[in-house]
Design brief:
single chain, 718 residues, alpha/beta, Heat Shock Protein 90, Ribosomal Protein S5, domain 2, 5 domains, 6-stranded mixed beta sheet, 18 strands, 42% helix, globular, disordered C terminus
């Protein structure tokens, strides 16, 4: 592995540049290489995963993305590759280690992370020149790939021959070094601190506790000395219990350094912010990586069902929701990442759980579910490993399991947090303490709980935040006093034990005007749902149906109450998509109501609407979606927003068909895989109607309860 500050010294021997050959289509290169990844952390993670599969103990990332001669190096001390392995594995797109080598690595019997054989293409998304240096079994080989030359050979319909180059002197007896130059600035423009934090969150196989340093040692020296010591002990003769133990220990060691500094638990910045922590199966996070007063709870790790599936990992809550988004380097932490076999398989799952409690606004976490990527089961991850195929039984089981876990945790949180906050209120707010002290003894405990609940409410940080908090306390005291006038202990206890997300609604409904407005909104939506359902049933004119859906995008997702409609961005996306071959009518593009762009919760969404009576072909949808993504990706790169996620949604009347599905797959599986490849989702009109009706009918029932609370308070006040 070479020094990040210097150009690596190379062997001088030169050989023919016709030794290696690479075959790849332009569509695969662009879709699975150049355009698949938009952030550097995801690319680095792919190479780290490859090092794990190669039985590496140490991965060294040298990140020099600022200077004019910027470069990135990822080196490891794994098994490396011979010349033939470079040809058969690295240069063969779609080479599957699990199919050809079994599900585990050769030396340490590690479960392979790689599956699709396309992770190596990720480097083309951030660099135009890629060098691969590798050593194994006495062989030392290296090659260079120039993206522009590769594209030219593809256009000429000819194989590409990577240049054979001298091996970098930093490569040891075994291992691999990937060197990237001619970097794509917008995609590698990330601070070292940000890269460190984001890599730390993407793996749970990292050895995150650095060995004790001797005097004069650096952290990396300590790691290297530990590895060397274990290797010596593991190869000792005879092979006694001590050497076997050393070999086992060595196989579990996996360190990653960034510019000479190990990535550790301390880089997972969210851990120190947690107030409450739930872990599956056992307490696994080191105590010194957490806040000293964190409350820890262990939950069952058994996923119900016949699969014998288990999970590990954790989720937790912070004191304030903004603590999960206040660190620009770490990015938004307000989600639960799902990992399988030690690496991400879905970037976030909270928004797929239909779990609407306030609890989730405070929640972050990392769950490992290896059964999602079992060797003997179908691959259900998208190419960029950001999402899972949602109708797979394993995914459905995980969602049900997590909903139940979150429900239990939410109930505990709603009980514990007000008690903790109540102590803070009494210690820091003398008027409230004086008021509670003035109450009859039987009222003091429920009043204290109520104030704690109000203190635990999330209030957006602003210049008026303190004022808003005081008004809530005033409303709470008024509500409590109105009930207290009747000396109704039961109702006092009910008011004081309400969940955090319910108490705000109770206080809000004390205003009859606001309550009436809320009811009117919900009723209007129910009427819209009925009208939309009637239109679908009658297969009305395409334009009428599409205009109605576009005007009410909350039908796609109830959370889309207010969305960003950037007309300029929309026009740019579809103008560029047209240049890539997308169909576009002669009329003004902004009048197209069958195709829309919007920004929802910092996610870019392209929505394609199909006539209810038409059965679409999945390959047509795929081609359309890929074109839109290419256009959107280019625009985001140009505006420095390449880290922002995107999605393509198709709304259809009939389930898509698959005219060209391969003989080995049924039409349904093929359709799911094609949509997943482009981060897409397919909705049927009837599905939207059903989900929306269920959601808002539930709202109506909840609002009736809130209205009854208001009526009780009014009645008790006399």
């Amino acid at each position: 592995m070479s020094d990040a500050a210097e150009e690596p010294q190379r062997d001088t021997a030169a050989t023919s540049d016709q030794t290696y050959e690479m075959k790849i289509s332009m569509s695969v290169l662009e879709a699975l290489g150049i355009n698949l990844y938009s952030n550097a952390a995801a690319v680095v993670s792919e190479l780290v995963a490859n090092a794990w599969d190669a039985d590496a103990n140490l991965v060294s990332i040298n990140w020099n993305a600022v200077a004019d001669d910027a470069f990135v190096e990822i080196g490891d001390d794994g098994s490396g590759m011979t010349r033939e392995e470079l040809k058969s594995k690295f240069l063969t797109v779609g080479y599957s280690k699990r199919t050809n080598e079994g599900g585990i690595s050769g030396s340490y019997e590690r479960p392979f992370m790689g599956r699709k054989g396309i992770g190596k293409l990720s480097v083309f998304s951030i660099a135009d020149t890629v060098e691969v240096h590798s050593a194994r079994d006495g062989e030392r080989n290296a090659l260079r790939i120039e993206v522009e030359d590769l594209k030219k050979r593809i256009e000429e319909d000819k194989p590409y021959n990577p240049e054979q180059i001298p091996v970098a002197s930093g490569v040891g007896e075994h291992g691999t070094l990937i060197r990237l130059t001619d970097l794509r600035r917008r995609r590698i423009d990330v601070a070292l601190n940000a890269l460190r934090k984001r890599v730390a969150r993407r793996f749970d196989i990292l050895t995150l506790v650095v060995p004790k340093q001797e005097e004069g040692e650096t952290q990396v020296d300590a790691i290297q000395n530990e590895i060397d010591s274990l290797r010596t002990a593991a190869t000792a003769e005879p092979a006694d219990e001590a050497s076997k133990s050393a070999a086992t220990t060595l196989g579990s060691r996996f360190y990653v350094t960034l510019n000479g500094s190990p990535i550790t638990f301390d880089d997972r910045v969210e851990l120190k912010k947690l107030e409450y922590l739930w872990e599956f199966g056992a307490e696994a996070i080191p105590a010194d990586s957490l806040a000293p007063d964190v409350v820890r709870t262990v939950l069952s790790d058994d996923v119900p069902g016949d699969g014998g599936w288990k999970v590990s990992g954790w989720f937790g809550t912070t004191a304030r929701p903004d603590q999960l988004v206040e660190d620009d380097d770490a990015g938004s932490l307000k989600n639960i990442m799902v990992l399988s076999r030690g690496r991400p398989i879905q970037e976030g799952i909270l928004d797929r759980l239909d779990f609407s409690r306030l609890f989730v606004s405070y929640t972050t976490g990392q769950i490992r579910a290896d059964f999602l990527d079992a060797d003997d089961q179908d691959d259900i991850a998208t190419s960029d490993r950001q999402r899972l195929m949602e109708d797979d039984p394993r995914v459905e089981a995980l969602r049900d399991f997590l909903r139940a876990a979150l429900l239990k945790a939410s109930d505990q949180w709603s009980e514990w947090r007000p008690k903790k906050k109540a102590k803070e209120v009494l210690a820091n707010n003398k008027p409230i303490k004086d008021w509670i002290d003035s109450l009859p003894k039987y009222q003091q405990d429920p009043a204290t709980k109520l104030m704690g609940t109000i203190e635990s409410l999330a209030i957006p940080e602003s210049t008026d935040a303190a004022k808003d908090r005081r008004r809530l306390f005033q409303s709470g005291i008024i509500a409590f006093e109105r009930i207290g006038l009747r000396e109704d202990v039961e109702r006092l206890n009910q008011l004081s034990t309400m969940q955090t997300d319910d108490i705000l609604n109770v206080l809000a409904t004390l205003d009859s005007y606001e309550s009436a407005m809320y009811l009117d909104l919900i009723r209007a939506r129910i009427e819209t749902i009925q009208s939309f359902e009637d239109d679908v049933a009658e297969n009305v004119l395409e334009k009428v149906l599409q205009e109605k859906l576009h005007s009410n995008l909350w039908l796609l997702d109830p959370a889309w109450d207010r969305i960003s409609q950037d007309v300029s961005m929309e026009e740019r996306v579809f103008e560029l998509a047209e240049s890539f071959g997308a169909d576009r009518p002669d009329e003004d593009a902004l009048k197209r109501i069958d195709l829309r762009y919007c920004n929802v919760q910092n996610r870019h969404v392209i929505i394609e609407l199909k006539r209810p009576g038409v059965k679409p072909d999945i390959d047509v949808l795929y081609d359309q979606g890929l074109t839109y993504i290419r256009a959107l990706t280019q625009i985001l790169e140009e505006t420095g927003r390449q880290d922002e996620p995107y999605e393509v949604m198709f709304v259809v009347g009939q389930k898509p068909g698959a005219k060209k599905s391969p003989p080995s797959k049924n039409s349904a599986d093929y359709s799911r895989e094609r949509v997943a490849e482009i981060n897409g989702r397919v909705f049927r009109y009837q599905e939207l109607v059903h989900k929306a009706r269920a959601q808002y009918s539930d709202y109506i029932e909840k609002n009736k309860n809130l209205t009854r609370v208001s009526e009780v308070l009014d009645a008790l006040s006399g």
